[in-house]
């Protein structure tokens, strides 16, 4: 499983999707012949799951009834954002396409290029009960569904080094006070509390995502995601920034975190070798460690939920990260019935089994019973239950906001972490992003 490359295209890479103006096609023409439904998919190793789904659907009674067949077009990952943007502004647009939800599809929605699937989902028992509610909601825009989950979940998790914790007689923190106490004890033992790949910036983002949620609740970022820039002025954002500064000043990430990279394996190595006791990272950290430090991954890698912030409005069950990827339907499709029928396959047990076999954790409501066959059933079930029980799953900020906001937002986050701006200056800069 390609851990970082997936994160990049699920996150920062997605921000290039619509950096130039989207050409809105006012035509009501279909995107192709009514019998063929073209589906664009991000072309990586995981596409084998979608290839099998297309084969299964095309041979099904549902395809025959809808009088349609799916034609899958695998677009190389590095080309995907640009090719999709160009195609959606042309007569050769796909009927169905892979995306990241949130900000990655906002311009298409505003140009009336997407089918609103809200009522379709509500009226279809397979779709309405087939997926975890927090995942369906995470890909929505202003409460409307424009996507069907079609890949595995990737929540951000608090990982810890079991051998370090055992040696220091520690337990994973469940509250912020406990986390600060653990930090103090680790520093006394000359161990950096947290690994952090600050050179890449996006690992820093995860801290703010969780702190804003725990302090102010998911509603704070919901306002921002839906285009209300004044949401950055919520007291929870300032408190989160102040909390981050306190962690940095207190040495929670060590002294040189801004020159450590996740991409080149620096942060995972610091963590696996016991130089840092914990690592806040997406669920792909398991596969990263399995590839780089297999003995550590199999024996000493532990995981826990992000702790509760005392007095905060956020539920400790809430999660942040990459809920999944989604299929969306082009409003100009020539065969909406076939497109919707194909999307229903994503809720099937056969589809979920294929995801599990690929090392992914499905977002379907019936997936837990299938996880015994995953590479690490214990970790797989922890992830699944974490998301299943979550009242809210906040989409990674760099995916959720408009693409033209994402890059300057990351720049401001980095300035906060390296001490080039104060928490108040950080908030002021974010409020100015439109």
UniProtKB/TrEMBL annotation:
InterPro entries recorded for this chain? Answer: Bact_solute-bd_prot1, SBP
Q: What is this protein called?
A: ABC transporter substrate-binding protein
